[in-house]
Amino acid sequence: MNNSPSPSWLGRLQRRLRARLARPQPLFLGVDGVQGAALSRPEAWADWCRAHAGSAVRLSLSSRLLHELVCQPGLPLDDESALLGYARQQFGQYFGAAAKTWSLASWRLEAEPQAGLGEQCGAIALHGLAAQGWREVAAEHGVRLAQVQPAWALALQRLAQEEPEWRSAEQAALAWLEGQVLTWLTLSSGRLAGLRQLRLREATPEALAELLQELLQAQPGLPAAQVHVMGYGLQGTGTALNLGPALRLHGRLDATVPDLAQLEPGPAAPSRRLPRPDFLGAPRERSPLAWPLAATAALVLATAGWSAWQAYTDRLQQQTQVARLKATQAAAPRAKAQTTPLAAVAVPARGRDAGKTAPDASRPAQEVQALLRQPWEAVLVQVEQAGAALKPAPLAWLSMDVNGSRQELHLEGLASDKLLPLQLVDRLAAEAGWRDVMLSRLQNAEQGLSGQRFELTAKFRGDLLRRPVAAAPESPEAAASATAPAKHKAGEARR
User: Fold this and answer.
1) Alpha helices in 22-150 (DSSP H)
2) CA 85 to CA 49: how far, in whole Å?
3) Residue 277 and residue 183: Cα distance in Å, rounded?
């Protein structure tokens, strides 16, 4: 029973990150527990996971923990769910109700119509106390499982890469030995042709040689030179191992633990013509665009994060400015109350509001009075005179916008020639009180209008503008003398 306290969510997150970044180490899971290069003796799977929380593992499984099933060709097992359902039914018939809780892994070889080969498929069941709850124990301690595959499948893939001539032979075989359990794998032109799990009468070289001779006699077309023997657990010394001059041995069959180097993945990609069962599910092939897409996504996220940070800082600055303006506005009435003369105080109202001032209510009225004091007559007269004096034709005004508080003028009009707006700019700039006279736009008029449409902006000072000269009133004698000829002409007309 595990009485150790469960880690917090932060500890689980740290374990998960360490496991994600850790390099997977190879381990072999047998009936006695896990074995590895750094282990002097086998350890229970739960104990190893507890001592190495937050690590990553490539787990190879002993054949003594597996049951093999090769499906007959022609069965309607098109998808993985149908294959696993059929395998669980078959294992339940052979091994009883205990097989319902076993973990299953499937493998499938695609059909090759050109070579006349159909589809092959099979399944593997993981049983035994050593493998009980292997997935849950790893998840509890944050151990990342990179692969969980049979040892014979890993050895077959590695040997196929190291021995290309053996793999391409018309008939070849691999004998994977684990004590008294022998996994016999036959190949035909590099494709798996047969998979059998056999038992020796005893784990001795004599029993192994006897079983191999029986297998060779059962396949007359299989030469002994194309049979490779790998594994461990054979009883006897290294000099006593004599399985025949033609058989090719790899490593020491009398070792007590497997050679994990024989189970390491090769530099090339695994062959599709050999089974690759994995209890974690079918391996997904990584797209060549995975890294470019990941880099693009990271760049987009970084850009979005930077934009969000900029928006956040801008918002803080705006909030600070708003708070500063509010503080300034709150302090403004008090300062004004101390310096405002009596003339600026509003007229006291009758009743309960008598004696109170209203500076805010008088401010719009003061602004209107300031606008009314502007010399609008001088502004309009000078603009109209400057436009009417232009040749060959005067300007046609479309709109005029005046900002009295800023003393700015915005004009829009039509001219028959492009030179006329420029002349208007020169005339206004030459007048006293006008400055920053600029032509902001000049283009052809829209449909329905003729000529050149222009926009003009200028600033003026009302105190410097030239006031228009008013006409002097006529005296009564001049008016009478002016009307006398008219009366004389009217009398002649009546006669």
Assistant:
1) 45-51, 80-95, 134-140
2) 31
3) 15
- Which of 149, 75, 72 minimizes the C-alpha distance to 105? 149
Tell me if residue 214 falls in helix, strand or coil.
helix
* Amino acid identity at 251: G
Cis ω before 392 (30° cut-off from 0): yes
Helix (H, G, I), strand (E, B) or coil at 193: strand
Burial of 339 by CB count in 10 Å (0-12 exposed, 13-18 middle, 19+ buried)?
exposed
Residue 107's closest CA among 91, 85, 123, 86?
Answer: 123
Do the strands 172-178 and 227-232 form a parallel or antiparallel pair, or are they unpaired? parallel
Element (H, E) at 103: strand 103-109
The DSSP output letter for 474 is P
- Per DSSP, the three-state class of 259 is coil
Q: Which residues contact 15 (CB under 8 A, 6 or more apart)?
A: 7, 53, 54, 141, 142
The tens-digit pLDDT sequence of the chain (495 residues) is 455 555 677 777 777 788 888 899 999 999 999 998 888 899 999 999 999 999 999 999 999 999 999 999 889 998 999 999 999 999 999 999 999 999 999 999 999 988 888 899 999 999 988 888 899 999 999 999 999 999 999 999 999 999 999 999 999 999 999 999 999 999 999 999 999 999 999 999 889 989 999 999 999 889 988 999 999 998 875 444 666 667 888 888 888 889 999 999 888 888 999 999 999 986 565 667 777 888 899 999 999 999 999 999 999 999 998 888 888 888 876 544 444 444 444 444 444 444 444 455 567 777 677 677 777 777 888 788 777 777 777 778 888 887 777 778 888 888 888 888 888 888 888 888 788 888 888 888 887 777 888 898 988 877 767 666 654 444 444 444 444 444 444 444 343
Q: How many other CB atoms are there within 10 angstroms of residue 179's CB atom? A: 20
Which residues have CB under 8 Å from 354's CB, separation 6+?
348
CA distance 375 to 364: 20
Distance from the Cα of residue 183 to its chain's centroid: 46
CA dist., res. 209 & res. 196, Å (int): 17
In angstroms, rounded to a whole number, what is the distance separating the alpha carbons of residues 100 and 89?
8
Cβ-based neighbours of 434, under 8 Å, separated by 6 or more: 382, 428, 458, 459, 460, 465
